[in-house]
Amino acid sequence: MAASLESVDVVIVGAGISGLSAAYELLKKRPQTKLVVLEAKDRVGGRLDSAELKTAKGSDRWDLGGQWVCRNQKAVMSLLEELDVEIYNQWCTGSKVMHSSDDVVTTYSDPLPALSYLALLDLWWFTYKIENLCQEVPIDDPSTCLHAAEWDGMTLETWKHQSIWTNMGKEILDTVVGIVFGVTPSQMSLLFFLHYLHCAGGWSIIVDSHLKGHAQEWRIKGTAHKVTELLAGRLEGTEFF
């Protein structure tokens, strides 16, 4: 990454997919724009990363961060088409493995593992409740939600303990939040979580791979990280600090 002190028109903080997309769109509309991208790491990508790993036939590039796209992500799909990046279906059939906190390993092929009746009831009630709550948060301006102040002042962790009865139900929420957001429920507000769900199309669409248009619908050939590398390569004249 280069480094020099000079006057620029725009400073973009972060060389993840959002920062690089912003820089790319700015330069498309105003090629004369002088901009700089600030990034703390020695690579681009942010939450998108990859690594070369050994395979049966040699080696291949594997995603280490965000890796799925779906038809609901209009801007991302448009960008992939513009960059001529191929996608392929996520394989969703076959055996699944769940390793719970009590060190029990369960293998299953149905949408849900073999849970106790109480855990299934808990999961059903949680799904019903969260699907309805997220609809109360306006997509365009979540601050106008009737319960905005209350929900923004409460972590998802607090709500979890108030609303989910079984340990298995809590573990499922923890797992999904860790995979989708890369954090724990204690690190986000209930309002943020509900707003995200409403934008994405609801809880079920991000966890149920049997639904049409689910969040893990497609993967990107060559890894999702490749998209940020392609974007960085098109930012001609842009300096990275």
From TrEMBL:
Claim: Secreted is one of the keywords in the record: no
Protein name: Amine oxidase
Keyword DNA-binding among record annotations: no
Pfam family, one: Amino_oxidase
Cellular component annotations (GO), alphabetically ordered: mitochondrial outer membrane
Keywords, ordered alphabetically: FAD, Flavoprotein, Oxidoreductase
Ranges where the Amine oxidase domain occurs: 17-91
Record Gene3D superfamilies: 3.90.660.10, FAD/NAD(P)-binding domain, Guanine Nucleotide Dissociation Inhibitor, domain 1
Membrane-crossing segments per the record: none
Cofactor: FAD
Subcellular location field: Mitochondrion outer membrane
GO molecular function per UniProt: monoamine oxidase activity; primary methylamine oxidase activity
Reactions that this protein is recorded to catalyse: a secondary aliphatic amine + O2 + H2O = a primary amine + an aldehyde + H2O2
Membrane topology annotation: Single-pass type IV membrane protein
Protein family membership: Belongs to the flavin monoamine oxidase family.
Organism phylogeny: Eukaryota, Metazoa, Cnidaria, Anthozoa, Hexacorallia
InterPro entries: Amino_oxidase (IPR002937), FAD/NAD-bd_sf (IPR036188), Flavin_amine_oxidase (IPR001613), Flavin_MAO (IPR050703)
